Amino acid sequence: MFAATPRTASAALTAALAAAVLTLPAPASAAARSCLLGKWKLTGYTLDAKGPGSYATGRGGQGTVLTVTGKSVTYDFDGARKLVVKGRSDGEKYELRTTYRKRLTLKSTLKGAKKGTLALKAKSAKGSAGATVVRNGAPVISYNLAQSVYRQGEWEPVAPLRSSYTCTARTARLRMTHTDESGTGTIVVTYRRL
């Protein structure tokens, strides 16, 4: 047997360290990335609501572009179709046609990978997005979404504050159900990835 020289001792130490590193447990993998992240185009929208003596159905909004990051969402309404809501309230039928334009950005919280929840922070709303409403053919009101709606703690049917979602690499579906004293409404929005 020969005595270890500094060089062979160093080589032995290096080999031992390499073996130790190879046997260390792997670090825990990071949480799975949500497939909702990215840019989407609205392809389908339904709103259905019922309450005592009232109902409403909504369709439209195709062309709205939604961009989802890990911390915010942006709705780009330029080029989007009108959102048309038809219904009956207090014995009277009505039709509301709402045109949305420009951009709305809100901070958000996203949880889940292929399914989960998307929650928007209403008070963080900013942007020049606006809405113009026509009721039964007559103009009613125009307003800024960030200032007049979201920062007041309210929300618009095109951008609910909290939705559950499912998604794949190419499609996404957001769903929100809301119940209050006026009844229960469900919104389902489908998107195609851009």
TrEMBL record:
Residues 1-30 form the signal peptide. Keywords: Signal. This is Lipocalin-like protein. The lineage of its organism: Bacteria, Bacillati, Actinomycetota, Actinomycetes, Streptosporangiales.
